[in-house]
Amino acid sequence: MRNNKLFHEKEKPHVIAGSNERGSESSLEESVKSEQFSRIWSALITPMNEDESINYEALERIVELQMQDGVEGFYCCGSSGEGLLLTLDERKQVVEHVLKAVDGRVPVISHVGTIRTKDVIELTRHAMSAGAMAVSMIPPYYYKFSMDEIISYYEDVIRAVPGVPVIVYNIPQFTGVEFSKDNAGRLLSNRNIVGIKHTSTNLYALERIGQAFPGKALINGFDEQLLGALSMGACATIGTTVNLFAPLFQKVRDAFQAGNMAEACHWQHAVNQRVEAAVKVGIFNAMKYGWTLRGVDCGACRSPFRPLDEASKRIVADLMEEKD
């Protein structure tokens, strides 16, 4: 079984110095190890006020409450956090508020990916100087960039911010790009690429990447396939429904590590029941409304997302009442 131990202890993250003080690749190895990513990570939602401004008070509050639920790390400004609907300044502010709220108790990954390389470099420099453990990046999208252009985009960021640990974000259904050990070998061979967030149903590709690049952290990105991903070598998960249901993910992990497959399947079914209901109404808004029902008003997702109607809200309310 390869690299599939997920940590239980709340190890304080090693913080790399600011962008003007970074050293060589060796400083990367001394600061961040792939094993440090072996956690249950929340793909954190971004609470909004009614006028679509960010509710930073609610953000800090749900970070605290999610840690009480057992969340072991936060992934900011990704798909669940509406990162591509935020301005660059808002993305910086989200990272700063999350880091303030965690206060070194759990690590933070900042998703910095966007279409323009200069913007990614700006966000990366900020995230690392603010204290994030690593950054994560979707490939550039919309234009049909060649694989050489896509890999060069990652390499340009790494050159501009030496020593930065990078998690490749593989989410082909949104970007139109699917990374594999073959087409991304040059990228995955880079020592600054410390892992991959694999939000793809192709678990065969995940296992092949793990075998070809055994030092990389394999991180599951689809909540509904955590157990399958663990069996293929994943060491962690970053999930949307972790926002509300972190204990269920811990139970899947713990049962898997104990070799109790029947129990692991039971808890994976519990996760999937919640994923299925949330997807029906819009999973990102469902997570926000779930937190509103828990007493922290997180508003709705930014336009062009539409807010939940009353029927959808009832579905989420019923979901929050589900028993394991």
From TrEMBL:
In the Enzyme Commission scheme, what number(s) does this protein have?
4.1.3.3
Lineage, top-rank taxon, reads Bacteria
Q: What class of enzyme is it?
A: lyase
Q: Name one GO biological process term.
A: N-acetylneuraminate catabolic process
Chain sites annotated for binding pyruvate: 238
Q: Where is this region: Disordered?
A: 1-29
Active site per the UniProt annotation: 169 (proton donor/acceptor), 197 (schiff-base intermediate with substrate)
Annotated GO molecular function terms are: N-acetylneuraminate lyase activity
Pfam families in the record? DHDPS (PF00701)
Q: Which UniProt keywords apply?
A: Lyase, Schiff base
Spell out the GO cellular component terms annotated for this protein, sorted alphabetically and separated by semicolons: cytosol
InterPro entries per record: Aldolase_TIM, DapA-like, Schiff_base-form_aldolases_AS
Query: Which SUPFAM superfamilies does the record cross-reference, listed alphabetically?
Result: Aldolase (SSF51569)
Compositional bias of kind Basic and acidic residues: 1-14
TM ranges? none
**NCBIfam families per the UniProt record, alphabetical:** PRK04147.1
The record's similarity note reads: Belongs to the DapA family.
Q: What is this protein called?
A: N-acetylneuraminate lyase
Organismal lineage: Bacteria, Bacillati, Bacillota, Clostridia, Lachnospirales
